[in-house]
Amino acid sequence: xxxxxxxxxxxxxxxxxxxxxxxxxxxxxxxxxxxxxxxxxxxxxxxxxxxxxxxxxxxxxxxxxxxxxxxxxxxxxxxxxxxxxxxxxxxxxxxxxxxxxxxxxxxxxxxxxxxxxxxxxxxxxxxxxxxxxxxxxxxxxxxxxxxxxxxxxxxxxxxxxxxxxxxxxxxxxxxxxxxxxxxxxxxxxxxxxxxxxxxxxxxxxxxxxxxxxxxxxxxxxxxxxxxxxxxxxxxxxxxxxxxxxxxxxxxxxxxxxxxxxxxxxxxxxxxxxxxxxxxxxxxxxxxxxxxxxxxxxxxxxxxxxxxxxxxxxxxxxxxxxxxxxxxxxxxxxxxxxxxxxxxxxxxxxxxxxxxxxxxxxxxxxxxxxxxxxxxxxxxxxxxxxxxxxxxxxxxxxxxxxxxxxxxxxxxxxxxxxxxxxxxxxxxxxxxxxxxxxxxxxxxxxxxxxxxxxxxxxxxxxxxxxxxxxxxxxxxxxxxxxxxxxxxxxxxxxxxxxxx
Length: 499
Fold this sequence. Notes:
This protein has 15 helices and 24 strands. The protein has helices spanning 20-35, 62-78, 90-95, 98-102, 118-128, 173-177, 185-197, 222-230, 251-259, 276-282, 288-301, 320-333, 360-383, 402-405, 460-467, and strands at 11-16, 39-40, 50-55, 84-89, 108-110, 132-134, 148-149, 155-159, 161-162, 181-182, 202-206, 238-242, 266-268, 306-313, 337-342, 389-394, 407-412, 417-421, 434-438, 441-442, 447-449, 455-457, 470-473, 482-484.
């Protein structure tokens, strides 16, 4: 028995946890389900026919979060005959059949390598009235060959690789995502071109380690070439990428960033620790001097570059001197923002069994000092921009207080969040439009521009947002994307400090 009325399509909802990879995978899950005839449930619908959890396994509380949410759905499903629950992503790859054992009301469990199987698994579970668990050990089809329901008219994710060949001792990702698999440059550029043809202005190239892109086909300079090729795509105004690994960062990438006009002068490069001893224990094959050297070269080529990072506090064996060295590197690097994490023990990683695990109170105290140090620096760096004109790509959902303040929000070219007044243009600026405005105030995590905008450019992305449309892409050999109804992009919950 199904819950949908006779002749009406089944509804679905996707709940996303984790990093940008998971957000993009959720776009594919949505595209697959809609290709199979499902319809996205209204936001207020508490009883969709299918709920899919796309999970993360990086943080220690990931398991508790999933099983807590599954527990909340159990009575809903009991009152809702035919409802199905599916669990995918990294935690599904890790826990496998344990999920159904712990939560027997789950209908489908699928892993990171077989997203494309989801519609068939749902059908099979419904037909057999039994749970279906399918976990593949390696990638058979590159995910970007799958249909994708894009969540934005103006910005899109494009995967250039999946998996990771590094062996960081704190990271569970390689065992869940597998060895690195690279897409061919032509396939990537076809997808980027299709997005630009549909009006998308900004593309972010995704990989667990974008700098090692090309390892499969033997070209260590492939990533820099890819950035330059993106510069030849008509209509594409901004190119970003995440995440690079310092050990593979080459000078040709810096040159490509500096010399390709649509590549943004923003760089997210995980530090993890400023202590060489801790980096060695983490099996991060660079040292602080190498890391700071890269930043120095980036800023020499692009003085306006905004550099962001990931930092882990409390790794096993970290001493007060090690932590002090991290603070030293943070002060020297002058990050524009940092994603900071308390070390989280993950079963199956070498770090989980290391001696000298630190007490929670020590980690917490260091974490608070790190946050204070980072915010002091980011605030000082943001204050330098007061009085400067910034180009803002107007976004959806970036400003939680926008409705109350009458502002709109978006991202500057360097990635900084800008809340801006609309002045006489109130009601005429749409998500996806471009605004030029002057920064009037700086906070540690955002900029305000409270004067009237200097300029407003209407874009095709803004037209699509106004019309209630978002791109859908069908796979590698793309052509022109089709158009469908929009939704607010799902924000990832938590983050992946794995790279």
